[in-house]
Amino acid sequence: MTIEELNKRKTPIVVIDKSLEKYKEKILFPEKLAKANEVLKKIGLPKLAKR
Amino acid sequence: MKQPKYQLKAEQDLAIFEFISEGPKGKIPKLIEFKETNLNGFYNLAFGDKDETTGKIDDKVVTNNDDTEKVLATVVAAVYAFTDKYPDAWVYATGSSASRTRLYRMGITKYLEQVQNDFHIFGELDENWILFEKGINYEGFVVQRKNN
Lengths: 51, 148
What we know:
The complex is a heterodimer.
Chain A: H1 3-8, E1 14-16, H2 30-43
Chain B: E1 8-10, E2 16-23, E3 26-36, E4 42-50, E5 57-58, H1 68-85, E6 90-93, H2 98-110, H3 112-118, E7 119-125, E8 128-131, E9 140-145
Parallel strand pairs in B: 4-6
Antiparallel strand pairs in B: 1-2, 2-3, 3-4, 4-5, 6-9, 7-8, 7-9
Protein backbone atom coordinates (compact mmCIF):
# COMPACT_ATOMS: atom_id res chain seq x y z
CA MET A 1 0.00 0.00 0.00
CA THR A 2 1.36 3.43 -0.89
CA ILE A 3 1.54 6.29 1.59
CA GLU A 4 -1.18 8.06 -0.44
CA GLU A 5 -3.52 5.08 -0.04
CA LEU A 6 -2.60 4.90 3.63
CA ASN A 7 -3.50 8.54 4.10
CA LYS A 8 -6.97 8.02 2.62
CA ARG A 9 -7.95 5.50 5.25
CA LYS A 10 -9.88 6.65 8.33
CA THR A 11 -8.53 3.82 10.40
CA PRO A 12 -4.80 3.66 9.92
CA ILE A 13 -2.65 0.64 9.43
CA VAL A 14 -0.80 0.27 12.70
CA VAL A 15 2.47 -1.59 12.96
CA ILE A 16 2.73 -3.58 16.17
CA ASP A 17 5.96 -2.79 18.00
CA LYS A 18 6.65 -4.90 21.05
CA SER A 19 9.22 -2.40 22.31
CA LEU A 20 6.28 -0.16 23.28
CA GLU A 21 5.00 -2.74 25.76
CA LYS A 22 7.34 -1.27 28.38
CA TYR A 23 5.15 1.85 28.59
CA LYS A 24 1.94 -0.01 29.36
CA GLU A 25 2.50 -0.25 33.08
CA LYS A 26 3.54 3.40 33.34
CA ILE A 27 1.48 6.55 33.48
CA LEU A 28 3.13 8.71 30.86
CA PHE A 29 1.08 11.84 31.49
CA PRO A 30 0.14 11.79 35.19
CA GLU A 31 -1.03 15.42 35.31
CA LYS A 32 -3.41 14.86 32.41
CA LEU A 33 -4.75 11.66 33.93
CA ALA A 34 -5.32 13.44 37.25
CA LYS A 35 -7.17 16.20 35.40
CA ALA A 36 -9.38 13.65 33.62
CA ASN A 37 -10.21 11.98 36.95
CA GLU A 38 -10.99 15.37 38.46
CA VAL A 39 -13.34 16.22 35.60
CA LEU A 40 -15.07 12.87 35.90
CA LYS A 41 -15.51 13.36 39.62
CA LYS A 42 -17.00 16.81 39.15
CA ILE A 43 -19.27 16.36 36.16
CA GLY A 44 -19.36 12.67 35.36
CA LEU A 45 -20.06 11.40 31.88
CA PRO A 46 -22.14 13.02 29.16
CA LYS A 47 -25.69 11.72 29.26
CA LEU A 48 -25.22 9.75 26.08
CA ALA A 49 -22.94 7.40 27.97
CA LYS A 50 -25.96 5.70 29.49
CA ARG A 51 -26.76 3.47 26.58
CA MET B 1 -9.42 12.17 7.25
CA LYS B 2 -7.57 12.35 3.96
CA GLN B 3 -4.79 14.68 5.05
CA PRO B 4 -1.26 13.39 5.46
CA LYS B 5 -0.39 11.61 8.66
CA TYR B 6 2.54 9.71 10.06
CA GLN B 7 2.88 5.94 10.23
CA LEU B 8 1.75 4.71 13.63
CA LYS B 9 3.30 1.98 15.72
CA ALA B 10 1.58 0.54 18.76
CA GLU B 11 1.81 -2.18 21.34
CA GLN B 12 -0.68 -5.02 21.09
CA ASP B 13 -3.46 -3.41 23.15
CA LEU B 14 -3.40 -0.26 20.96
CA ALA B 15 -3.19 1.90 24.07
CA ILE B 16 0.32 3.26 23.44
CA PHE B 17 1.25 4.58 20.00
CA GLU B 18 4.45 6.02 18.66
CA PHE B 19 5.18 8.04 15.54
CA ILE B 20 8.08 10.14 14.29
CA SER B 21 7.50 13.82 13.54
CA GLU B 22 9.70 15.02 10.69
CA GLY B 23 10.48 18.64 9.97
CA PRO B 24 13.05 21.42 10.22
CA LYS B 25 13.92 20.39 13.78
CA GLY B 26 14.68 16.87 12.65
CA LYS B 27 13.04 13.57 13.56
CA ILE B 28 11.21 13.77 16.87
CA PRO B 29 9.61 10.64 18.34
CA LYS B 30 6.18 11.19 19.88
CA LEU B 31 4.10 8.98 22.10
CA ILE B 32 0.31 8.85 22.35
CA GLU B 33 -1.24 7.31 25.45
CA PHE B 34 -4.81 6.16 26.06
CA LYS B 35 -4.92 5.59 29.82
CA GLU B 36 -8.00 4.34 31.59
CA THR B 37 -9.20 6.66 34.34
CA ASN B 38 -10.81 5.70 37.64
CA LEU B 39 -13.98 5.05 35.65
CA ASN B 40 -14.03 1.87 33.63
CA GLY B 41 -14.25 2.61 29.91
CA PHE B 42 -13.27 6.28 30.21
CA TYR B 43 -9.80 6.99 28.87
CA ASN B 44 -7.53 9.97 28.96
CA LEU B 45 -5.76 10.77 25.69
CA ALA B 46 -2.43 12.55 25.89
CA PHE B 47 0.58 12.85 23.67
CA GLY B 48 4.00 14.41 23.79
CA ASP B 49 7.61 14.23 22.75
CA LYS B 50 9.84 11.39 23.79
CA ASP B 51 13.37 12.38 24.74
CA GLU B 52 15.41 9.47 23.47
CA THR B 53 18.34 10.38 25.72
CA THR B 54 16.48 10.54 29.02
CA GLY B 55 13.45 8.45 28.06
CA LYS B 56 11.22 11.14 29.53
CA ILE B 57 7.95 12.24 27.94
CA ASP B 58 7.13 15.93 27.65
CA ASP B 59 3.63 17.15 26.77
CA LYS B 60 4.44 20.82 27.37
CA VAL B 61 7.26 21.23 24.88
CA VAL B 62 6.54 23.33 21.80
CA THR B 63 8.33 21.42 19.07
CA ASN B 64 7.84 23.87 16.17
CA ASN B 65 8.53 21.17 13.62
CA ASP B 66 6.15 22.80 11.11
CA ASP B 67 3.88 19.77 11.04
CA THR B 68 1.10 20.63 13.50
CA GLU B 69 -1.70 19.56 11.17
CA LYS B 70 0.02 16.30 10.29
CA VAL B 71 0.61 15.58 13.99
CA LEU B 72 -3.05 16.29 14.84
CA ALA B 73 -4.22 14.12 11.93
CA THR B 74 -1.99 11.32 13.22
CA VAL B 75 -3.44 11.63 16.72
CA VAL B 76 -6.96 11.50 15.25
CA ALA B 77 -5.94 8.38 13.31
CA ALA B 78 -4.83 6.83 16.60
CA VAL B 79 -8.26 7.66 18.07
CA TYR B 80 -9.87 5.80 15.14
CA ALA B 81 -7.59 2.81 15.71
CA PHE B 82 -8.20 2.81 19.46
CA THR B 83 -11.98 3.11 19.13
CA ASP B 84 -12.05 0.41 16.47
CA LYS B 85 -10.68 -1.91 19.13
CA TYR B 86 -12.68 -0.41 22.01
CA PRO B 87 -15.89 0.91 20.37
CA ASP B 88 -17.63 1.76 23.65
CA ALA B 89 -14.71 3.72 25.08
CA TRP B 90 -15.00 7.37 25.97
CA VAL B 91 -11.86 9.33 25.17
CA TYR B 92 -11.13 12.57 27.00
CA ALA B 93 -8.52 15.11 25.94
CA THR B 94 -7.43 18.50 27.12
CA GLY B 95 -4.39 20.57 26.26
CA SER B 96 -1.45 21.18 28.57
CA SER B 97 -2.21 24.89 28.20
CA ALA B 98 -5.15 27.03 27.12
CA SER B 99 -3.49 27.70 23.78
CA ARG B 100 -2.96 24.01 23.14
CA THR B 101 -6.57 23.21 24.07
CA ARG B 102 -7.59 25.90 21.57
CA LEU B 103 -5.39 24.21 18.98
CA TYR B 104 -7.23 20.92 19.56
CA ARG B 105 -10.56 22.73 19.20
CA MET B 106 -9.42 24.19 15.90
CA GLY B 107 -8.38 20.74 14.75
CA ILE B 108 -11.77 19.27 15.64
CA THR B 109 -13.56 22.22 14.02
CA LYS B 110 -11.60 21.87 10.80
CA TYR B 111 -12.72 18.28 10.32
CA LEU B 112 -15.98 18.56 12.22
CA GLU B 113 -18.25 17.11 9.55
CA GLN B 114 -16.08 14.04 9.15
CA VAL B 115 -15.53 13.61 12.87
CA GLN B 116 -19.23 14.07 13.71
CA ASN B 117 -20.12 11.30 11.27
CA ASP B 118 -18.11 8.88 13.32
CA PHE B 119 -18.10 10.23 16.89
CA HIS B 120 -20.32 11.80 19.50
CA ILE B 121 -18.34 14.89 20.54
CA PHE B 122 -18.85 16.90 23.71
CA GLY B 123 -17.05 19.96 24.99
CA GLU B 124 -16.35 20.65 28.66
CA LEU B 125 -17.57 24.08 29.66
CA ASP B 126 -18.22 25.48 33.14
CA GLU B 127 -18.40 21.99 34.64
CA ASN B 128 -20.88 20.73 32.09
CA TRP B 129 -20.73 18.63 28.94
CA ILE B 130 -22.33 20.22 25.94
CA LEU B 131 -22.55 18.99 22.38
CA PHE B 132 -19.57 20.36 20.48
CA GLU B 133 -20.23 23.55 18.54
CA LYS B 134 -17.82 25.68 16.58
CA GLY B 135 -16.39 28.82 18.15
CA ILE B 136 -16.62 27.94 21.84
CA ASN B 137 -13.52 27.80 24.02
CA TYR B 138 -13.95 24.47 25.72
CA GLU B 139 -11.74 23.33 28.57
CA GLY B 140 -11.62 19.77 27.29
CA PHE B 141 -13.29 17.33 24.93
CA VAL B 142 -14.72 13.86 25.12
CA VAL B 143 -15.66 11.60 22.23
CA GLN B 144 -17.30 8.24 21.79
CA ARG B 145 -17.53 6.27 18.56
CA LYS B 146 -20.96 6.17 16.98
CA ASN B 147 -22.48 2.79 16.26
CA ASN B 148 -22.44 3.30 12.49
